[in-house]
Amino acid sequence: MSTTFSQIPIIDFAPFINGDANSKNLIANQVNQACQGIGFMYIKNTGISENLIKQVFREAKIFFALPITVKNQLAWSDEFSNRGYVGIERERLNPEQPGDLKEAFNVGKEDNSTNFNFGQNNTSLICNPWPSGEENFRETVLNFYQACTETANIILEAFAIALQQPTNFFTNTHTAQNHTLRLLHYPPLQQTPKPGQVRAGEHSDYGSITLLFQDEIGGLEVCTTAGKWIAAPTIPDTILVNTGDLMQRWTNHVFCSTKHRVMIPEDEKKAVSRYSIAFFCHPNDDTLIEAISSCVREDFPQLYPPISAGDYLLSRLQATY
Which domain of life is it from (predicted)? Predict the structure, then answer.
């Protein structure tokens, strides 16, 4: 029986990374409780360099300060890649409300041995449309993508142990690195928003897990299993992690994919930019998502029909944009 959480727990991953099997099981048990009780957790001591986190935030601010004409040249315009610039109000995470008051830049896996033409699309490859002359931006973002990938694999190992599966159960289905690193900028509010408009509408994430890095401005709220919205502020030296919809399907709702949103501050912070970075971890496209055996019982049968991870992601993206 799961425990209902009224706040997001903090889990130290150092014993999982450096400890013995017993230590790993203890941390996996904490992960299990968090994923069942609220679907969010702060984790610390994952190995991602604080300097690298600061660098990628600095580069994100430089990128979003570029002229809109430059950013629009990098806009995500195809159906499949989920890469490139997304302008303010283009995305509606809550389809019933106006467009979100944010802009974003999405990055996927890239072969560093390939010479890409900065600022131009390459029709022979699915690649990232980088701004011309911003090589530091590209290098920093790709280094951060790799660091997040390594940390996500550690978390997925803990998930597997928590669900009584082999340690590599999830990592074996994430080998293609079909992940999306998203840089986010919520501009200062300069006019009255439309009715119901917020910085990011109420939604759940699509994939297996999400790693979130925030600045100090705040605004993120999480809905508990009791239906109460609580703040999810920045906690120094931690990463905010949540389970996504595919993980919820995979675990037959044993792990919950929790609704969350970014509200407009009611104080002077609404006149200040907010920045965050999300790493959306997604299984290989051909992975068949069906209920894990340990999450199905005679009195709790499989809730969803099987679906491929790729088909599910595409359907959700088409509904959002």
Answer: Bacteria
